[in-house]
Design a protein that fits this description.
single chain; globular
Amino acid sequence: MLLVVEMVTYLPVQGGHIRLAGRFVDPALSAAMGWNYWYCWVFILAAEISASAVLISYWTTSISSAVWMTCGLVVVLAVNIFGARYYGEAEFCMKVITITGLIIMGIILDAGGGPDKFGYRTPIGFQFWRNPGPFVQYFGIEGTTGRFLGFFAVLTQAAFSLIGAEMLALAAAETRNPRKILPQALRTVWIRVVAFYVLGVFIVALIVPSDHERLGTSSTAAASPYVIAIERAGIKVLPSIINAAILTSALSAGCADLYTTSRTLHSLALNGQAPKILHRTARNGVPYLAVLFSWAIGCLSYLGVSQGSGNVFNFMVNLTALSGVLTWLSIAITYLRFRAGMRAQGISRKSLPWRSRFSHVAAWWTIFLISVVTIFSGWTVFRPGNWDTAAFFSNYLPIALFATMYLLFKWRMKSRIMYFVTGLHAIEADAEREEAAAAAKPSTLL
């Protein structure tokens, strides 16, 4: 995020970091990033639909998961074709309320405020950190090596949860005074990460033992650590309420995913990087062909009917996580070219509207870490007797797709250009007008 905001506040162009990759590195990289972004989010759409079937299986398994997937797909298509005002805002508020409530509930249970069942009347504290401990031995590999491999194995799942943070840059061209607003938005990102991810995982580690028999052994919501903790505490109604809230979030996320993928595909078509027919729009401005095409790919979720919704969800998680980290890798490369171009053209970093002293180190650290995670993400399939074709493709197919798209566009475009000042004067003029308008407003302070 440091890298994105530093570049986008300098040039808040439509398309954000994807467009800037074409300006500072290579138009072929920009095109490859656009397609990578599209299939990343279309796979997330399929994952969300699979997740909805997994969540419903908590209540009943007598009805085929295909029925619930069909219902989910119809909902997300209807919302994107006809629109739903205030839906996203209301759903976001519910997400915040849900995760906040879970964290508070976890603190209460850990402090001994739960029902008198399984010892929840007495404080738990860090008991499960001492026995059995926060780490488990991965595949039975003993010692620190087994614990490290267990940590490394979940990095792609962690990346899946953080994908989309860079979407902030895509709204830069449509934001009033982005040079002021984007740095402010950046300061709230770490708060959300700490509050909703780090703190949430920390609380779960306190109230559920890492060796619980249901963790990672079920493809239903019954394996959720929050559901396990609530049921262990003897609270009977709350698991269903939490499951319903998460189900609503999954469907809403699917609606947002289809919106994102259709607009990305529409933009690619307008730029000549996708079939022109996909830029057609209805009277209300909806790119209906792009919506229908992206929705059709989202029907890959039906693979879960025969393979199991949980298995397909995990497959899609790996695909999207690796696609997402390839976007981060491209952002880091773009930033290094941005810095190199500034030096070559004699542009001082002091002229940037916003900058961070850690950006250069962060770019190299991002390239190193993502390269390691990407290359070794599927290491388990190479263990003797552990070959899994699905796992191999879910971990390495995104790399092959990205490289293929880049080489194809590189062959087609045969161009490489770096330009820093095109459109910059208009951007600076807009920023000055915004600052002047803000200064002219009367103060409400007494």
